[in-house]
Amino acid sequence: MKQELTNLLASYEARILGQKTNLRLLLSAVLSGGHVLLEGVPGTGKTQMVRTLAGLLGGSFNRIQFTPDLLPSDITGSMIYNIKEGNFQTLKGPIFTNILLADEINRTPAKTQAALLEAMEEKQVTIQGETYPLPDVFFVVATQNPIEFEGTYPLPEAQQDRFLFKLMIDFPSFDEEMQVLKQVIENRFDSSSVEEALDLATFSAIRKEISEVTISDSVLDYVMKIVRKTREAEAIRYGASTRAGISIGKAAQAWAYLSGRDYVTPDDIKMVAKPALRHRIHLSPHVELEGATVDRIIEELVGSVPVPR
To answer: What is the DSSP string of 238-264?
Structure first.
């Protein structure tokens, strides 16, 4: 693993306490070119987590607060007529950036949510019939609040499938939360002082190295069996798509690279399977009534697939 990436991870874990696994998963998703959905109650540091990563990567960063009256053009941009020069000009929206934080994405209607679809999948934006490419390094991290449903618009399945991971942000331990409290109360936490740990050129070079991490046929077979099992399990109403298998494979390559290896193991697959699947499958109604959770069903499902030797 490159020294710059080691330094970035160390700085990240030092600034965001109590979320070590989620930080590594978020970084793995970014390094594999994917987008991430963060879900957690207010005040658990979701926005700070993304803002800090953007500062460490040194790329451009924009934040959009999603509201019910937000329009698609508020995200992508629009054409305006310049009276002085007598022509139309394109005003590019905040989506033209390296890191986009879509804050509380489920608070805006489906029409505005859909404005992100083309950008996330094809890395391009169409404004008044003209297509504009997005930066080579571009990823979306969206947050949503799981406890308030009044005035919210659940993400359609098609859009959820575009996210590589769905990460659940929980409260840190007592000691870690106490440390955060002391840092903020004593003014020792300055969110504006994040130093760049990696430039975009190095980041792109690392992404190329990650794409060359070896994933054997037996491990790919393991991934495929897990994905197909989601379509056969009685507890699951709708199983995972082919994109889910691709996401697991790519994320496992990044996780292996962060672990200092140039090959993927079945343990890497197990580590990334839950965040890669939890937003892509839907439980059967009778299973939900029994109180089962998506995470528990995924654990049982992955555990039932024989591990390659």
So the answer is: E---HHHHHHHHHHHHHHHHHTT-SB-
Question: In terms of DSSP H, where are the helices of 19-95?
Answer: 20-31, 46-57, 72-76
Euclidean distance between CA atoms 49 and 27, whole angstroms: 11
- SS3 label, residue 173: coil
Helix (H) or strand (E) holding 132: strand 130-133
Q: How far is CA 127 from CA 65, 95, 131, 161, in A?
A: 21, 12, 6, 24
252, 242, 251, 234: which is closest to 292 by C-alpha?
A: 234
How do the pLDDT tens digits run along the chain, 309 residues long?
Answer: 578 888 888 888 888 888 889 999 999 999 998 999 999 888 778 888 888 888 888 888 899 999 899 998 999 998 887 888 778 888 889 999 999 999 989 888 888 888 887 788 888 898 888 889 999 889 999 998 777 666 678 888 878 888 999 999 888 888 888 888 887 787 766 656 678 888 888 888 999 999 999 999 999 999 999 999 999 888 888 889 899 999 999 999 999 999 999 999 999 999 999 999 999 988 888 888 888 889 999 999 999 999 987
234, two tokens: 């009685």
> What are the tokens at 103?
């804050």
Q: How far apart are CA 44 and CA 171, in angstroms?
A: 6
0.70 exceeded by pTM: yes
